[in-house]
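Technical appendix A lists one of the benchmark inputs used to test multi-chain prediction within the project. The record comprises two sequence entries:
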Amino acid sequence: MVDAPVDSVLAAELEEERPRPGLLARARDYARRHPTVVIGGGLLLIMAIVAIIAPLIAPDPLRLNPINRLKPPGEKFWFGADFLGRDVYARTVYGGQISLIVGLAVAAVSTVIGLAIGLTAGYVRWVDAIVMRIMDGLMAIPGVLLAIALISLAGASVTNVIIAITIPEVPRVVRLVRAVVLTVREQPYVEAAVSVGTRLPKILVKHILPNTLAPLIVQATYVCASAVVIEAILSFLGAGTPPEIPSWGNIMAEGRTYFQIAPWMIFFPGIFLAITVLAVNILGDGLRDSLDPRIARRM
Amino acid sequence: MYAYIARRLLATLPVMAVVGIAVFLLLHLTPGDPAVVIAGDYARPEDIAKIRERLGLNRPLYIQFFSWVGNLIQGDLGTSIFSNLPVSKLIGQRLEPTLALAIATIVFAILVAVPMGVIAAWKAGSLADRLIMVFAVLGFSVPVFVIGYAMMWLFSITLGWFPVQGYKPIGDGFWPFLQSITLPTVALGIIYVALIARITRASMLEVLTEDYMRTAKAKGLDNNTLLIRHALRNASVPIVTIIGIGVALLIGGVVVTESVFNIPGLGRLTIDAVLRRDYPIIQGVILIFSGAYVFVNLAIDLSYTILDPRIRY
């Protein structure tokens, strides 16, 4: 029997003696190394909490109060009042609910659909040729225009907005997943799995899927940011969430006519929208740096 | 090279075919009778029948498709339901403001973003680099209509430097045209600047570590020659690629910017068509924009050999 080198024995003993850092210490260490994840995640969390507890911190966003119409921001109306005397603060705070629901739903649905298509296309050659041509074609159609066209036909509702934004986002996810699968499928452990007769679904789920998760999480955050912006654009253009539901885009659309005398109707929802998108993007950048250090060094 | 160009041109055919099929099917994949959808909630049965007749919706789907494609090949994009004018004519009337805005934005973005990216990479880690990167993240996050209204409020309403809204064609004089297009260009360009600056920095950082850069420096070349002739030229392929990909962002942004600044271009034509459910116009505009995107990216693909002689096809 060959003895282990003295150095490695010592190192192992030292490892045993050194206590493993606690969860809090590890979290602190992660936050120190990746501050953008904490800043982005924290900002997003605050926006989410504000939207969720909106009924507790804001009055009814639909209550008409014509006597106070177009009242500038002040003690009674923090963000001013709109052309019907409704409280812009209440409407802005409630508006976050729609943006977050749409953002998260589009990110989740497009990731799941894109993952399924991307895995199959990347691994099964004949599917790849057909699917990728369709994806290339869909990617050539500007997402905002495709979404506008879908909404104009299907009618304005939150579900239709989610579907209309998801369709242009799916090809981007498919491309990413497919690219990862094409690299991973050539790895020796996949070849080994094939050689021992592992069935295709098991290879895809057990050996290939885990490799796509890190880039997919990062992509999902960018899809979420893009969905929040596109929802606001659709509502702003009058082809999104129904006007009776306060969403940031709707509030801004209503403010367009009164912009010169009541700019607060556009600025406050605009600031909330920008902060939310910024938070998601910062979180995405932080996750990318944390999950893929090779790209992090370059960006 | 010519074989590659031919191959690349052929490769755009399936893409445009998918775009065509998708645009055609949009109307038919939505639930319910397309004629009812187009006619709107308050239409009379005879209006619905008229629309069905005019769009040929009572014919079998494949005949509708082939006749639509046949017309398309001859440059016939259909007729507007609302104004009864040919869609190609309506698009032609609105093309100038959109083209002017798009070209001005691309030129502005490249002129601002590339130097920003080069400086950020050259002074990597410095305060200038950090400020540029913060701008890149911010610029990418603030939606175009928020920037547009903020700029309009500051520069038009408060300072009075620019007209609040509207568009003056270049035929009315260059100065009024420039005044009307400046704010929309900057508002629309910021997201593009952020995107290009970021990629320029990343691409330059990679090139600056190459051996030939050290050699060039050792030869005693001045910074300008070093950065522009040696580094930027070699870093240009990813930059040009992102400019092409960003055209999709630009097209989405044009629609919104034209609405914010009341510019009578293709974006406004689309929104008006959406509100009136004038479907032939929506189809026509999507086809034109998608075609432009495919064409720009084809041109960019072909430019690689000029930018980087190492690339051979």
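Chain B touches chain A through 52 residues (CB under 8 Å). The mean pLDDT of chain B is 88. Comparable benchmark entries are summarised in Table A2.
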